């Protein structure tokens, strides 16, 4: 009781928090560009793939209770490869945090603070996220447990108001162009699920690591549901072509709502209350995992100092890109890195574990 | 208390941010709300640079509240500026208006006939792009100059912009005499999907603005007008005839006097069935509507037979109107405004994909079968 | 040196120290006491009477050392030295001035017991004991305060309380080393978890029935001599919104009132900053008609909404504080002056807008909805940083501020219990008594977050109806 450990629902919420970020605003646009009206199918399929990957991670993790990839990675891959993997994760996490911070700041500038220097917006977000990171993984988990359900609930409530503008027929035809565009869109879509790999790092903090698999699957499934819903709604409101032209379709369909006669006629202010927490929690999760890796690599007990030292790096990554397109480019590269890691690491972990286990059984 | 130095550091970091903040702070009374905007083509040719003539309707809420009596201040002001881009026009306006124009409350954009004939997409680009605008802003085509619509003095409402936007709302939902697609978001969706749209049209009269049917937009160009009765027919075809209007059947009674049956429509639905026969599109249109008798010119005591007869008369009249409108679009204008192309995309994707660029031509040749069914459900509190 | 000299020397300099010789029959007694703590009549009527009665054996207990004797004197007892037997006796003195048990003013309730604690630890304990005549109610009294040696009693119910929490409380209390304990507030601040938090991490109450309720849930009460406020630990955030009436009244009423309180607390926290953010940064998010109305109302206001709001909110806090310290009748005058005169004339002078006056008034009313005064004041204080954030970064700053407060709240603990529990970590079995108060049958178990030794609270199977 006094000793804090992550509970099973907390893992679910943590994964959800890490995956769902500022990307939810532009997801229908990025996917729609490749897959058109079939975006929602691609999103479901890549969600299922993400679920497979996450269950592999959880399987290996549950075999090493109290240990994360930081400990068992070098054991399974050998010292050198393990180190390389961890470094790759560190670079990827830092890049990811940087781009997420930048994208969130860009959206903030676009919709809320036009004249405010982007550095100020970034500092504001980073100070809240770092403040939370300082309190450790359990406080982060509790924070997510409070904020995520509220945010999702508000988002769903707001989305119900878009139903007036929808025409489900716009989602037709289903797979009119065959399966090729879907395959083509798969990597881009899969990027939106990046974030579940933090399970490799937070599973050791669990009370009962054996429950990790189920909770992680629920977390990814919840994301899948939310993503599919948002994408389908955007398509049904905007249509397959217009969705690719609007920069933030989710925000666009919500700005479209006018609740006649209500005190709050315009719901975009409420949407702001939803996506800023989404963005912040994603930043928190990745930043925390990055500082966890860095502190273990430097053989430190505490992650706090490292977390603080990483802030300037994140800040730099966030302010360096010149324009929105370059931010997209950076985010694409970090996503490719993450994509590579996620596609390669879980099967390798599983195989190595099986191999080692068999060898031990024989010995 | 290990955390305390850290939190103090953050407090220190945040302090300068907070102290020097407020880059975006503009008090509400320093903003000048723009309620409506009119865009015309600049006809004075001497300045080659200026292409648009942009008129914004600025509101002074103080004069509206009635508390402060300022004889010189009127509630609205419609300054006009011209330039090669809307954005330049807006910024140019700032040289004349002392406060910052604010577009988040923009209700309607009115586009003049001249400009609409050349295409409106370019002039709307700013409004798709800018964060201060919403996709829900109404888009209206004015017969004549858009600017004039902003200068009307409506009798009951002090703000012409609000008057016009309310008028479109009411007109759209209560009478079905206006097209269903009225916002720039919907126009943008149609236009970028390669479809044609019908936008609400207005005609300016002395102290009022009259809703005058719809403007036929081929892509983003105005090519003709529809009367309000034609719009009503169009909405029967689209199935967007949701509520509260009437179909009038003119007949003559025994004394050779004209007599009318009026139906208050409570709901309508249209089903479009698409098929391809001999390489040509075939469209089967089934329109179903229901409603009450609003006024009956044929005496009292309805019987089943009477009602049935009236239903048939309404069906017949409606069908004729639908056929007439479709024939007009096929022959005169040659464009599909009914969204049949979208139906083909949905249900005949392979065919549509092969012919999507020549759809309007195919539409001219399309065979359209029409079936109308209406039901009179109630007759009110008097037999 | 004999007893008398030693005592007299220790007490020298205290003019209220009385040491007098009584000759009763052939026995000689020395009676030592503090004049101010013992009534003169009492000595005459009781002590001398008893000493004079030869049949009476001393019913008083004996003492061994001088420090003991001094302590006894200082706590208001009589020390009697019998010259014949060469023994020191202690007789309980009366005459310590204490307040009568009366209804508490700060914690009034519509329904429920009306008696309130007083400044004496023994009276307070008697109020609790009387309601729980069972040996399992344990009271651990210790003296805290390097100089004041104040009695601090720790009350808990053996068999319910979680021993881990109990040990933690005992450890924290035993490490207290401070010169004086004036009120339970001193104890509270020594033993609380985080000094830098605006939120209270213990709860105080004046109602014995409430203390008993908490003890039965598995919490621990700390009673400090000289303070009518009894501390209860551990506490959670949701307890700030709970009042005893919730349990005495039927569940629907209790739940509805709790929801109103929580709504009020959120309004008190964010409404002024939301006003600033919307007025100064995002008027586009207000409905058009309302935006026009507000714009017209603010037309003559020369200040930015941030200054305007801070000015009015600060005035409100000043009025509240002024009304608090003044006698009741004066307090009403302050209310009238503040509410009517300042509000009205500020609007008329065009310094603030009428909309803001409404906002401030709603904020004020909402903030008084929170039953725990220390919790309400925390929320009211946090309003100001939020206003600063909203004034510099608009809605974005406001949301960041709320997230930061939330981050602080979830990291806070009270004696090993998460401050934000039972909401997080999810503990649905405890949600029945959090934001709503579920009907009685659902409150079968004690709060799980405290891990009480005995979980069951009631046995519903035994419930019978005559029909």
Automatic annotation (TrEMBL), chain A:
<dbReference type="InterPro" id="IPR004761">
    <property type="entry name" value="Spore_GerAB"/>
</dbReference>
<feature type="transmembrane region" description="Helical">
    <location>
        <begin position="270"/>
        <end position="293"/>
    </location>
</feature>
<dbReference type="Pfam" id="PF03845">
    <property type="entry name" value="Spore_permease"/>
</dbReference>
<feature type="transmembrane region" description="Helical">
    <location>
        <begin position="12"/>
        <end position="28"/>
    </location>
</feature>
<keyword id="KW-1133">Transmembrane helix</keyword>
<feature type="transmembrane region" description="Helical">
    <location>
        <begin position="183"/>
        <end position="203"/>
    </location>
</feature>
<dbReference type="GO" id="GO:0009847">
    <property type="term" value="P:spore germination"/>
</dbReference>
<keyword id="KW-0813">Transport</keyword>
<feature type="transmembrane region" description="Helical">
    <location>
        <begin position="80"/>
        <end position="105"/>
    </location>
</feature>
<feature type="transmembrane region" description="Helical">
    <location>
        <begin position="146"/>
        <end position="163"/>
    </location>
</feature>
<keyword id="KW-0472">Membrane</keyword>
<feature type="transmembrane region" description="Helical">
    <location>
        <begin position="333"/>
        <end position="353"/>
    </location>
</feature>
<dbReference type="GO" id="GO:0016020">
    <property type="term" value="C:membrane"/>
</dbReference>
<feature type="transmembrane region" description="Helical">
    <location>
        <begin position="305"/>
        <end position="321"/>
    </location>
</feature>
<feature type="transmembrane region" description="Helical">
    <location>
        <begin position="215"/>
        <end position="238"/>
    </location>
</feature>
UniProtKB/TrEMBL annotation, chain B:
<dbReference type="InterPro" id="IPR057336">
    <property type="entry name" value="GerAC_N"/>
</dbReference>
<feature type="domain" description="Spore germination protein N-terminal">
    <location>
        <begin position="24"/>
        <end position="203"/>
    </location>
</feature>
<dbReference type="GO" id="GO:0016020">
    <property type="term" value="C:membrane"/>
</dbReference>
<dbReference type="InterPro" id="IPR038501">
    <property type="entry name" value="Spore_GerAC_C_sf"/>
</dbReference>
<dbReference type="Pfam" id="PF05504">
    <property type="entry name" value="Spore_GerAC"/>
</dbReference>
<keyword id="KW-0732">Signal</keyword>
<protein>
    <submittedName>
        <fullName>Uncharacterized protein</fullName>
    </submittedName>
</protein>
<comment type="similarity">
    <text>Belongs to the GerABKC lipoprotein family.</text>
</comment>
<keyword id="KW-0449">Lipoprotein</keyword>
<keyword id="KW-0309">Germination</keyword>
<keyword id="KW-0564">Palmitate</keyword>
<feature type="domain" description="Spore germination GerAC-like C-terminal">
    <location>
        <begin position="213"/>
        <end position="380"/>
    </location>
</feature>
<keyword id="KW-0472">Membrane</keyword>
<dbReference type="Pfam" id="PF25198">
    <property type="entry name" value="Spore_GerAC_N"/>
</dbReference>
<dbReference type="GO" id="GO:0009847">
    <property type="term" value="P:spore germination"/>
</dbReference>
TrEMBL record, chain C:
<dbReference type="GO" id="GO:0009847">
    <property type="term" value="P:spore germination"/>
</dbReference>
<dbReference type="GO" id="GO:0016020">
    <property type="term" value="C:membrane"/>
</dbReference>
<dbReference type="Pfam" id="PF03323">
    <property type="entry name" value="GerA"/>
</dbReference>
<feature type="transmembrane region" description="Helical">
    <location>
        <begin position="386"/>
        <end position="410"/>
    </location>
</feature>
<comment type="similarity">
    <text>Belongs to the GerABKA family.</text>
</comment>
<feature type="transmembrane region" description="Helical">
    <location>
        <begin position="220"/>
        <end position="239"/>
    </location>
</feature>
<protein>
    <submittedName>
        <fullName>Spore germination protein</fullName>
    </submittedName>
</protein>
<feature type="transmembrane region" description="Helical">
    <location>
        <begin position="259"/>
        <end position="281"/>
    </location>
</feature>
<dbReference type="InterPro" id="IPR004995">
    <property type="entry name" value="Spore_Ger"/>
</dbReference>
<dbReference type="InterPro" id="IPR050768">
    <property type="entry name" value="UPF0353/GerABKA_families"/>
</dbReference>
<feature type="transmembrane region" description="Helical">
    <location>
        <begin position="353"/>
        <end position="374"/>
    </location>
</feature>
<keyword id="KW-0812">Transmembrane</keyword>
<keyword id="KW-1133">Transmembrane helix</keyword>
<keyword id="KW-0472">Membrane</keyword>
